[in-house]
Structures are given as structure tokens and as C-alpha cells.
Design brief:
Elements: H1 9-16, E1 24-29, H2 34-45, E2 49-55, H3 57-66, E3 75-78, H4 82-94, E4 100-103, H5 108-115, E5 129-135, E6 143-146, H6 156-172, E7 179-183, H7 194-207, E8 215-220, H8 222-226, H9 228-233, E9 246-248, H10 252-265, E10 269-275, E11 281-282, H11 290-308
Parallel strand pairs: 1-2, 1-4, 2-3, 4-11, 6-9, 7-8, 7-9
Antiparallel strand pairs: 5-6, 5-10, 10-11
Helix pairs in contact: 1-11, 4-5
Length: 313
């Protein structure tokens, strides 16, 4: 008899990779609703993180009591409001007291403003960007979509960093040579569609080793990027077409709609992580289920370990 199909196998595998390692210290900024607080506590119980709850202590305890969430011995670091919580969470990372950040119930922009602050933030030479790690039942492997949450209209230079961040993430998750599809509406270069020109430029930059670590192709329409038959029907011969690991979208609107379409119409799960800062930032949505939130924490844990591991000789 065949084993039962597990539609969550890809995310379950991410969580399983973290079971025998030390949990990472995570500063959770303003977990002042039941959803974000429960996510942090559940990730702690699962051994993925050690949460440091940053926010108004009385309010956090009240939310926990009302939602029947057992805080146990979880540390709470007082911050009077959401802005102060974001500032304090970033300060914990700068002081070496946290290895990653996690968004609570504050707005994403509020946390990101503290992360990219010039003198007190967590900037690196890279542009900060977001990646959705998608577990799509009908796709045989994890699918990465970037950037669908941070950079609204990224420039060509921005996209170089966005791609580099996603390639680094794929490497950390065990994909040695990720296949990167630069998406547009069509698969040919046209002056009428600037995204096709940028896609062609990015691929030439990869040829010149300005982007390394992955195989790039584009422009590719979405179907040509993820479906071998669709790619073949257009006569596209490419190791990327029909088998992409990473989908690079033209702008945030396109990426956000693509990810949410997969989530709500294809029943996909979407973990979220922000890259390009000094530490991973776990970015979850109020609509996320607990499995997705645990997967996001697992990705952050894997990234932290990968950064501590020296490269092979």
C-alpha cells in the first residue's frame, strides 16, 4: 500500500532540520496580539527559537491570559509602544543578545525603518529584500518568490542584490546551483516592456560574473518558468525554464499577487524571510497558519547556522 501523501512535506522537512540543533535567540518585536504571540511561543516550544518578547509587558501578559497562551519562563523586555519595541529589538541584535528578528503585531514598515536606519540599524552592503519560500503542492520542490514585500519598484541595481540574497538563501537550504527565472509577461525582449530589458541585462550580468552562484534565465513568463511543457511549446531551451527554484518578479505588486494567488487558490503555504540585513528577519502575516510560521523560523535558524559554518576548502 502506498504511503499517504503529505502535502506539507517540504515545510515539515525544514522544521525537521532544526530538531537536533540549539534554538536561535530571536527578538520578537511587539507581539501584542494572540496570533503573533502564539507564533513566537509555539516556535519556542518546537525548539526552533528562544524568543525574547519586546514590548509592553503588561499588555503582552494580558494577551497571553486572554488567549490561554502559557508564557512559561519566556523573557519579556519592556518597551512602551511599537516604535520603541522595534528600536529595542534592533538594539538587542546590535548588542549581540539576539541572532534574528521576528515581526510581531506592529506594521512591517515600522520594523523595517529601524532595520535600515543609517546609524542604528542593521544595514550591510546589500539591499534588504524579502523572499517568500513557497510550498506548492503541485510543484516538486520549494519555490522562492522575490521581492514581494519590501522593494516596491526595484531598479536594475536593486535586483542584483535581490537575486544575490535569494541565491544565498537557496545555498543555505541546500540548493547548490539554484535556477533563477527573471519573470515578465513574455519570454522575448521588447522595448515596450522594460522588465524584459532588465531581465536580459541581469542574465548578461550573470554571464560576466556580476551575479554568481546561480543559473539565470529571462525574460520568462510565469508558465515558462515553472512548467516544462509550456517552455517546450514556446521553443525555449534552457536549464532554468520549466524548473525554476527562484522567481524574480518585476515589482512588489506582481510578486505579492503571485504569492497570494498561490496561497489562496492553489492552497500553497508561504514562509517569509527578509535578507540583506546583518541578521535574518522573520516576517509573517496575520493570515499565516502555525505551520507557515514555524517554517519561517526554521529558515531563519538554518540561515544563522549557515552563516556560522566556514565554507568548505
Amino acid at each position: 500500500m502506498d504511503a499517504p501523501f503529505n502535502r506539507h512535506a517540504k515545510f515539515d522537512a525544514l522544521v525537521a532540520r532544526c530538531q537536533d540543533v540549539e534554538p536561535i535567540l530571536v527578538a520578537v518585536a511587539h507581539p501584542c496580539d494572540a496570533t503573533s504571540l502564539e507564533a513566537a511561543i509555539e516556535a519556542g516550544r518546537a525548539g526552533l527559537i528562544r524568543p525574547l518578547l519586546v514590548g509592553p509587558a503588561a499588555r503582552i501578559r494580558r494577551v497571553a491570559a486572554e488567549a490561554n497562551i502559557d508564557l512559561g519562563t519566556t523573557d519579556i523586555i519592556e518597551a512602551p509602544h511599537s516604535h520603541a519595541a522595534a528600536e529595542q529589538a534592533v538594539a538587542l541584535v546590535r548588542a549581540g543578545r539576539a541572532e534574528a528578528l521576528m515581526k510581531g503585531s506592529l506594521h512591517t514598515d515600522e520594523l523595517m525603518a529601524e532595520i535600515v536606519a543609517k546609524d542604528t540599524g542593521l544595514r550591510t552592503a546589500r539591499r534588504v529584500s524579502h523572499v517568500f519560500i513557497m510550498d506548492v503542492t503541485s510543484y516538486p520542490k520549494l519555490l522562492f518568490i522575490t521581492d514581494a514585500a519590501v522593494n516596491i519598484f526595484p531598479t536594475l541595481d536593486d535586483k542584483v542584490d535581490i537575486i544575490a540574497n535569494a541565491i544565498d538563501l537557496a545555498h543555505a537550504l541546500g540548493i547548490d546551483l539554484p535556477k533563477v527565472a527573471i519573470l515578465s509577461a513574455i519570454e522575448t525582449v521588447s522595448a515596450k516592456l522594460p522588465s524584459t530589458i532588465e531581465a536580459a541585462a541581469l542574465c548578461k550580468m550573470a554571464d560576466r560574473r556580476q551575479i554568481v552562484g546561480g543559473l539565470l534565465d529571462g525574460p520568462l513568463a510565469f508558465d515558462n518558468a515553472i512548467n516544462p511543457a509550456a517552455a517546450a511549446s514556446k521553443g525555449i531551451t534552457s536549464p532554468v525554464a520549466g524548473d525554476a527554484d527562484i522567481l524574480v518578479v518585476p515589482d512588489l505588486e506582481a510578486g505579492n499577487m503571485l504569492a497570494k494567488t498561490l496561497s489562496f487558490l492553489a492552497d500553497a503555504d508561504a514562509a517569509g524571510i527578509v535578507l540583506g540585513a546583518r541578521v535574518p528577519v522573520i516576517l509573517t502575516s496575520r493570515a499565516d497558519n502555525i505551520r507557515t510560521r514555524l517554517a519561517s523560523c526554521a529558515v531563519a535558524s538554518i540561515l544563522c547556522r549557515a552563516r556560522k559554518t566556514p565554507p568548505a576548502e
